[in-house]
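INFO batch 0412 | record 1 of 1 | parsing
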Amino acid sequence: MADIQILGFIRNVKYLQDSCLVFVDEYKNGYKRSSDGVYIDGKFLSWVCVFKSYFKRYVSEHFGNGMLVQVKGEVLPYSVEHGESVAGYTVLGQTLNMASYPKSGAKAEIKRVKDGLSNSSDVGIPDLDNYNESDF
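INFO prediction complete | emitting tokens
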């Protein structure tokens, strides 16, 4: 079985008798194909993640529609609908965590930290001789 990690928004949660279904929408950015320069549009991928029945309480207490989540699970190369195997994939969820939004200005944040460290007046050369002296 293959492992998968999904970062997306909860569209819906459905509670069944013996399982919990979490529908997650994940956006994939578009890109420009280098071979012929054609732009491929971005698209939404919808995943149905199946969690065991003991996840029901955890999901109902901590998650809701529209929340950004990270799902880790295993992918099976088939899907089951109404007791019959059909074409598609099944994601067996192992973990479901709230995800944090990535910072939009990561480069600016790194620059601010570097500038703050370089302009600090209390940064100096440590006095190793006094540090290594005996305290007794």
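INFO post-check: The chain has a mean pLDDT of 84.
INFO record closed
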